[in-house]
Every structure is written in C-alpha cells, then in structure tokens.
Amino acid sequence: MFDHIGIVVSDLKAGAAFYAPLLATIGLKLLEDHGQPDGTGWLVFGTGAPESPFFVVAAGRPTFWREGDAPGTSPIHLAFRAPSRAAVDAFHAAGLRLGARNNGEPGVRRGRYYCAFLIDSAGNNIEAGVYADA
User: Fold this and answer.
1) Could you tell me the pTM of the whole model?
2) Are 48 and 31 in contact, with CB atoms under 8 Å apart?
C-alpha cells in the first residue's frame, strides 16, 4: 500500500482552501505548511499518527521532476478511506460547498462499500469511502 501520495495544483492557496476543510471531514488535518512567498510549496495532510500514510498538495516544480516535466493534463482518481458513513456524507457535502462538482452521491457500491465522489477544480475524481454495514 502507499506510504504517501502527492498532487500538483496550480494555486497552493486555493488548494489549501479546498483540501483542508474537505479532508477534515474524514479525520485528516494539515500537518505541515511549506508554502513560500511566491505561491509555491507544499502542504502535508494526515492523521498525525506516527508513520501513517499522508497526502501532499504542492504548487510549483517538485524537486523530483526531470527537465521538461509539467503538471499532468489527465485527471487522477484519489480514494480516501473515511472513518464512517457520516464522514463520507460530510466529505461530499463539504466538497460541494467548497466548489467541487458532484460525481456520485453517497451510497453503497461493491457490497458493503459506502462512498461518494467529487470532481475538484482541476478535474480530479476525489472519493471517500468506508466498508461498513448499514
């Protein structure tokens, strides 16, 4: 499984304004803010538990990019594990309030998997889900 994953956004301030309240609904918080005066930098979100997976939102040119690399033009799909059905519902509602588009109302899919889908401002499919009984 992943240790961490990161995405590049065009505007770090806007990325923070969207992802911080959205991820809070599923128990993830802003752990580190490495924003720079020029608008580049990165934000680290996670639970804060030692050695737990984390999510990075960055703007600017990541150090690991090679010459000629640029942000992707194809959207990605990110699926976050939520702690409960109520958290999935809150994630979806918060995303809509924050300007995301609905890409799937909260509901059961694949047996016991309860999830919801949003499209963020960059066109990415953002999901939150939990395996739980009704």
Assistant:
1) 0.90
2) yes
